[in-house]
Every structure is written in structure tokens, then in C-alpha cells.
Amino acid sequence: MIRCERSSLPPDPAVTGLEPAEDRRMWLDRRYRGLLVAAGLKAFDEVMATSQGRCLRALSDRENWRLELHHPHHPPRGAFLKKHHVRTWATWLRAQVGADPGETAGRAEARNVRRLTADGIAVMDLIAFGERLHRNGRLESFVLTRELTGYTPMDHFLAGRFKPLADRGSGRDGDLRALIRRIAEITRRFHEAGYNHRDLYCGHFFIKEDAPGSYDVKLIDLQRVQHRRRFRRRWIVKDLAQLAWSASRFHISCADRIAFMRHYFGVGKLGDGDKRLIRAVLAKQGRMERKLGYGP
Question: What's the pTM?
Fold first, then answer.
């Protein structure tokens, strides 16, 4: 069954190993300092104010941007920027008493990137993050990560790479089974290390096929990732149900799903405890379908 273990990490891995920017409201990976300076993004306010890229989504409390960072001595590099901005009674009170910003969305995702990397789970590279609590209680933060060039979200990858079930016939696709095994192994390792994602949909696995049937996979969208030592079954069930719901029913068969669970549990034959967890996952998936409709 799923174990709870992870490597020993410093108290705040979000900051450990990063260099502070000049204004001390921003921390960055030293490998990207020259790139950020050349792009005019060397300080917190510059990052929060930038509009040099393409806005992918703008909500009341956050924005998602794709940037292209230019340097005179290097080719351009793509990056993704998440900006967060909220103002609540709690943030206003913290500002009035002179407290620090507390746990910000930017810091949370930066910490998860570095923790997961330390625990051997492949994710995107962290370039920088920053946070600031204004005197009026407005709390701002950001996280900047490197674009996964050459990778495709798994939901798009399935549709573009593999034949629909109606055209596949009765035979197995060995390359598809190799991908299913790889995703199951990553999910197992993620849960064994004590994490749950809370948004573990297919679109948050990014795939690059290095050779036919050989896949490099990275996990993204890590802001809501949690680490728990107890009472984790509910969250594991939720993760697996989200993954099952979002797996294309036009490309993933029942036999493929069973194969995923065998690889997830690391067994050739499912035991009674494995089957109990699967029934809980199917029940959760059914509730999602009633609420959200059938997946892709």
C-alpha cells in the first residue's frame, strides 16, 4: 500500500539555494540572473508590472502569462509567469501589525517545485519567485518557471499520437502501454513520497517522446500540492479519480485502466486492498461525472 516517506529537506526549500534580488522581495536561480537582467525583470515590481508577453488568462486574483526572455548571448527562452494579487481582512491585518506576508501562492508553488525535484519527481524548472505585502493589505506574489519546450500536455498527446479505440482493433498498442506504465510509476512515486496534487488531471502531465515508446514526463501546476503524513486516503482517491476522469475514453480502454492500476500498485495481480481502493476511485469518478459530465 502507499507509504509516506520523503527526503529530509531544509525548513523552507522555496528559498534555500536561491539568490535574493536587489529589492529582497524576489529570489531567483543564479543560472537565470543574467537572463532576467537582460529582460528587465531583475526586481519584484518589474516582474509584477510586465506586459511584454502574452496573457493566457486573467482572473480577479491571478494572471497567467507566457514570456519570451531574450539575452544578447543566448537564444530566447520561453517562460511561464503566474501573478497573484489578493486583499482580504487577514492580509490587511498583517499589514497593519507589520507582519511578513505569510504563505503566498507564489512561495507555495516555488516550494513545491523544489521539494518535488529534491524527491526525484520531474517537474518544471523554477526561475524565480517573489512576494510583497503592501501597507494597504494588498498581497502580491509571483512564480516564474521555464517553459517545457518540446513537451505536450498528455490529453493532447493521447489524441495526436494514438489511434482512437474504434480504429485500434483488438490488439494492444505497445507504445501506449509504455506511456501508461510510465504515468502509473510517476503517480505511485508521487503518492509514496507523501504528496497529493488536488488537480491531477491528464493535462498536468507533460510528455516528450524521446524515441518510440520512450517518454520523458514532467508534472506541472504545483501550487495546490500538499504533503501529508496521515489521513491521506481521501486525497489519493481524489487524485486517481481526477486522472481517470480526464483520461480520454476514446483512446484509453478498460483494459488500459486496469493495467495502469497494476503498475500503480506494482503488482501482477490486484489484491483485496487494491480492489477496495479502486472501488473508492470509481465511486469518486462517478460523482465527478454526475457533476461535471463525462471526461474527454
Answer: 0.90
